[in-house]
Design brief:
Blueprint (H helix, E strand, L loop, with lengths): L11 H12 L15 E7 L6 E7 L2 E2 L2 E5 L10 H8 L2 E6 L2 E9 L3 H14 L2 H8 L6 E6 L4
Antiparallel strand pairs: 1-2, 1-5, 3-4, 4-7, 5-6, 6-7
């Protein structure tokens, strides 16, 4: 990812999760909020700030790609990172000590979305509860390897 200012997450637990994860190459901080569920760090560019942003998300793999779910725990609004990815689709995904440049696309095809949503719920069952809590359709993104595109 190009040289830009880094703006750490403003939410304390999110900032700490990213710091611990990156400082230890995922040896610590690899599970989100100590749930036992593995997570990845998504590095992206802020739509409004143009700065580097980082967010831990549940690790949902689909072959050599990652599924990114904009659940925000079922809150009524999308997380800010959703708008960042819609504006700029290049990201870095850190999965423990592996870092890959990827291209993200929002999944709009109903069949593909359903398949990836089902995979995500299988990986992290609370996603189904989050969708039930909110009227918005929770966004689904697919991060695919940059090479060969």
């Amino acid at each position: 990812m190009e040289e830009r200012e880094y703006l750490p997450p403003t939410i304390d637990w999110v900032r700490k999760q990213v710091e611990v994860y990156e400082a230890t190459n995922g040896e610590k901080g690899y599970t989100l909020l100590d749930t036992g569920m593995p997570c990845i760090i998504v590095t992206h560019i802020g739509k409004n700030t143009g700065a580097i942003r980082k967010i831990p998300l549940m690790r949902v793999k689909s072959n050599d790609s990652y599924v990114l779910i904009g659940s925000m725990g079922g809150q009524p609004k999308n997380p800010v990172w959703v708008y960042n990815l819609r504006a700029r689709n290049d990201v870095e995904i850190r999965d423990k000590d592996q870092v890959a440049e990827m291209i993200v696309r929002e999944v709009t095809d109903p069949e593909e979305r359903e398949r990836l949503w089902d995979l995500s719920v299988e990986t992290y069952p609370p996603y189904a509860d989050y969708q039930a809590k909110t009227e918005r359709a929770i966004p689904v993104f697919l991060a695919e390897p940059k090479q060969g595109r």
